[in-house]
Hints:
Elements: H1 2-19, E1 33-36, E2 41-44, H2 65-70, H3 72-77, H4 83-103, H5 106-112, H6 115-130, E3 134-155, E4 158-176, E5 182-184, E6 190-202, E7 211-217
Antiparallel strand pairs: 1-2, 3-4, 4-5, 4-6, 6-7
Helix pairs in contact: 1-4, 4-5
Amino acid sequence: MDLIVLIALACFVLYRLWSILGTKTGVERKRTLILDDSDNVIVMTKKQHDDNSTDVQEEESELPAHQNRLVEEIVKNDPDFDVEYFLKGAEAAYSMITKAFAKGNKKRLKMLLSDDMYKLFSGSITTREKDQLTIETKIESFEIVEIDAAKVIDVKDQKKAQITVFFKTKQVVVTYDQNEEIVENEAKTSILRQDYWTFERAFNADSLQWTLVNTKTR
């Protein structure tokens, strides 16, 4: 039981990390852990500037210059946006969404996907369940996680950031039937996946959560 509780807590913390990815926190660009009374879990807080601090030096980015150039327009609208934090969160979100889809966890998917994307994921899960099939997915490694495109859009007088991330991963995907017999990938060999996922967030929204709004596979 203790192990189940720890796993559940870890998943929720990852979700909370994802909900504010791309936001710098604190003068030293560190995040502060607090206990949220509303749901009694550890969450991340947004940066609080220290007006009394002086001689603060920003850490040098280890990312290629073109990655930062892609998000210049987003940074103009949200100075707290940070590429490195965003990519770390995007990687965590990719893992979480991929695993939730494999396990048929519609509740978690609904928190992370747009309505249109949720319908697609949920419909696929329903079809799989009708066929009495289950999927086991293991992400062995992330070969590449980088921003492919970024833009600011206006939707009904609301500015939103859209960022497309390219993921190159090695995965093992195995399909089982109702008798728990392997019906696909019996050798459990890994495959190389190349995906483009687009995430979106409104600048003036109360929530800092990013939502998956589109996917494309190369």
